[in-house]
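Figure S4 source data
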Amino acid sequence: MDNNQSTIKFTVPGEEKENMRTILRNVFDALNEKGYNPINQIVGYLLTEDPTYITNYNSARSKICRIDRDELLQELVHCYLFDKT
């Protein structure tokens, strides 16, 4: 085992965070409009990285595929733990 390995630290710039929020909201709305449970579908996509969990309606699938999944997960966990709404 190599002892020179270091932990990878993710940092998402503010503008990128807002872009992720906008895309995620658009995907949520598209799934909702098509009658899907948006939370379940987005979680399925995040767990599997299978884009078929996301509808093509309103280009939702292509939009969510533009987001780095690791960065999105990191931001979701950060918001859950630290943002007070």
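Figure S5 source data
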Amino acid sequence: MTTNVGTIDRILRIILGLALIAFAIPYGFPQVGWNWIGWVGIVPILTAVFGLCPLYSLLGISTCPRKMSQR
């Protein structure tokens, strides 16, 4: 399986995902009726864990460092 999510991108996705999930849990944040949308934070966490972003694949984007070709 090919990865297309680099290290810095993975760290940012985990931070974003955890922040969104924290918003979904009413502890510490006011209940506003839109808290359920925070569960979308599972998506960036999963893409960070597996190192594969389907949207990046569709668009042909990769944040992984390029491998040097051996001569």
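The chain has a mean pLDDT of 86. The chain has one domain: 7-59.
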